[in-house]
Amino acid sequence: MDTLTAGEIVDRIKKNLGFPWRESSKRDTFKFGGPDTVVKGIATTMFCSYDAIRRASEAGCNMIIPHEDTYWNDADDVSVVSGDPSYKPKVDFMREHDIAVFRIHDHMHAQKPDFTYVGLARALGLDNKTETAPQSHHFTLPETTLGELAATFQKRLGDKAIRVVGDPKLKVSRMQLGVGYATPNINSPEVDVVVSGEQQESDGLLDSPAYVLDATTLGIPKGWIMLGHCISEEQGMLEMAQWIKSFTPEVPVQLVRTGEPFWVPE
Amino acid sequence: MNALPNANAVTAQAIVDRIKKNVGVEWKPDTVDTFKAGDPSTVVTGIVTTALASLDVLGEAVKLGANMIVTCEPTFFARADTPTPTRRAPRGLPGSATANSAPPVPAPPDPVFSAKDDFIKKHNLIVWRFSDHWRARTPDPFAQGLANVLGWSKSAQGGDPKQLSISETKLDRLVSHVKQSLKSRGGIRVVGDPKLAVRTIAFLPGSTPIQASLKALPAVDAIIAGEVREWESVEYVRDTVALGGKKSLVLVGRIVSEEPGMQVCAQWLKTIVPEITTTWVAVPDPYWRPS
User: Fold this and answer.
1) Residue B101 host element (H or E)
2) What average pLDDT score do residues B27-53 get?
3) In total, how many domains does chain A have?
4) Does B83 touch chain A (CB under 8 A)?
5) Which of A195-204, B122-131, B154-163 is least confident?
6) What is the pLDDT averaged over residues A230-248?
7) What is the pLDDT of residue B7?
8) Claim to verify: residue A131 and residue A105 sit in the same structural domain
């Protein structure tokens, strides 16, 4: 019987990207297991959480393709975490279940289109015709209020821990979409509202919460909706699964959702 | 009445000099704790401390007759803290469509930056940032402030307000208490079993990296933090819980987590600048969520 290895799958990913693989990427590498692992099934996932690995394994997938880190730091530097009591059982589980983890982050964002945006726009129910230029992620929505927009998006994504800054009654229509930690500038004059995943709250390059608070005081219309890092990028891992499926017909491919990590009080 | 200068007149610079002398932390050459606006030689009429010198806080200072603002976070919306925005590098990765086709960042000036700068000039305000050195004090005034507000100031373990023992509380009840005490609106987010029994707590105020969570979590049932990176501490705690660890993480937001520490700062400033009125001005939780 023919076998398909993790290394062969990575080779097919590289071949199908449409642009040369960037060997300089430290993110997009094997994080556990390696190219020789024989693959029975592939799971894409957002964060390579223990629970997602376990559920993927139960579903018959032993190759995990996460968008984000496995060892709780972006560089996946094991020395940062290896002394912690949660590290060993996670790694032991992967070893016992013959798991291979290959991260796809930098190349996913460089793909055209970037599936993280495709997936989020789909999950938010955005009409592609309202995007002002192809892949600008800038949309002109039918005019609504910041409060209604946030409530609609919360419902569509099941996003319990959504956070909003700005006046709920603010009229908004020009929306800039971001994903993950790539939150766009709130101070563009062409943007009423930014919708994205995560951003440093203060002391960064542009502190959006403080900016929106003061803009609101001044009557300058600005709103900011943070969906959460996981929810904002997880949607596109479905598109990633479908894309990988298109060139790995020998094995099943599925999205295993990491899911929102948070709950919120009443 | 005579026209001689008031013998009690204290300038903003003199106040900063007293802070440097009394803070008990060696002053760093490279620090954000500098004047951000106004003339340091101005005679101070009153001091306001705050977690964030928002326009609302500046307006409140003017109402109080205070012209010196001591803020924990930046005034001009960035670490650079300048009255005109520094051009922000496009986000996204080199070569990604994201970086190049989004609407361009406006060239400076920016209407929000400019209006704030104008307000400060119009009212002759002086803004001085106090973050690095206030944070470096022992005991940590931000943790002390949180313990005060949460009613746990006598619960510190070995006098360290960063680690507390409290009477056993289920996580969901603890979170409600934190939400109410910190007047949180939509900023609270929690990882962990709502029915987890919590007896020990660590505070990580402000913004902290994974290393801080790795250090704190093994010794406590719950971390109460301001801001962490979601791919770091949130996933770390999520994995720890999934692996059976009786642990939890309560995020309250960076600014909200620093509020009580700036209240402590006002109390401390009164002891070293007794001749001037110092008032702490609260910043409401910036976040809300749809009901």
Assistant:
1) helix B97-101
2) 98
3) 2
4) no
5) B154-163
6) 98
7) 61
8) no
